[in-house]
Amino acid sequence: MEALWGCEILGAVKGKHRGGRKDDLIYGVSTDTRHVAPGELFVALKGDKFDGHDFVAEAVEREAAGVLVSKNVGSLPEDVLVIQVKDTTKALGMLARYYREKLPAKVVAVTGTNGKTTTKDMLQYLLSPTISMVSTIGNFNNHIGVPLSIFRMEPYHDLAVIEMGTSSPGEILWLSWIAQPDIGVLTNISEAHLKGLGSVEGVAKAKAELLENLTPGGTLIFNADNFWCKMIAKGFPGRKLSFGIHEPANIRGRNLQEIDGKMTFCINDRHTVNLSTFGIHNAYNALAALTVCYELGLNLAELAQGLKEFKLPPMRMERHSVKGVTIIMDAYNANPSSMEMALDEYSGMKVPGRKFFVCGDMAELGDESPKLHRKLGLRIAQSGVNFLLATGEHAGAVARAAKRGGMPGEKVMVFDRDNGLCDFAVAKLKKGDAVLIKGSRCMRLEELFDKLRGDLKKKADD
Length: 462
Fold this sequence. Notes:
By secondary structure, the chain is an alpha/beta fold.
């Protein structure tokens, strides 16, 4: 981050000066005292289960040059800048917007129901060798993560790729106001976060907020195969580029093939793309990333070849072989469309043995949750899965629907995750079998995966 004067920060957040020197430079912004560095501004955020104001003294001990607070925090050293505002979270965003306006870099904002992080990571992988850039770390894509990503930008950077997520109306509007993107990417839109957004139409409206803060002359990049993305693009009067597979698009994938667990396709009948992973959804992510590259004026032929060594982010269709058993770990998150895509890929996967599915809940679906979990159960019954091991609050609904869909009752099991699921799977799994593990992050299925992998190794060694 380029240093800012204390008086700049005071004006940017429209705060009140409660002490310290306004004419000193601030060299960074932190919201976590564990990582605050000397000379930085500590922003005391307040959440449901924490209050950053409790750690102001610790931040000062770590030589923070200033603190941004929303209440009196007592006596501090006279050289520590103290700025008070009504809402420190809002002030964090206001300061990030001020800082963004000082920078010449282009900003690419990536949003959508699925594929945001992978698309963002593909762009980082493709562009960082030749372009000075930053991107969102992990999936830090909310009202805290986006400002902190902006603060990672330096004046010498030419590009920033910022991921934006939402679970309620107005969030993308705020995040895009902060980031002022030059290019906006809509990966896809489907049912997710319905607890806050109500319906898939509500999801579409929330994602469409991105367009309201595209810079003048900005470009919208959208999925031509997705109904809601097309509807949003139809109402956008500015420059737009599309990507897709089934419908005509500016960057179109054709001749998709999966060979030895790796996806291969051709873009615009000219350039071959070889991915190191499988799944049509990853082909869409690659197309989205390559369309951004095209808009930036880069050579698609070279970049298409560049994805050959790209590795997916953790817990996204990771394939592990454990003593002859194939485990597909796809438990980063789950919603109806990502479940559908995972089951499609799993159905097409050739294994010598049987297919097991460890199915966790899909979270944040609101009043639609029971219906969507029943729908998932019916889909599982049609997928060719041999054993369903359901766990979570909605496991019973998924299991009953799978049985109604035709799965034999003796092959449909419901478990309390910590009570028998792993033991049952280890007892049943044989060499040549495969197991897909998928559910929302709140299910913490990575813990089950670690136990399953360890127990399978132990079983084979006994």
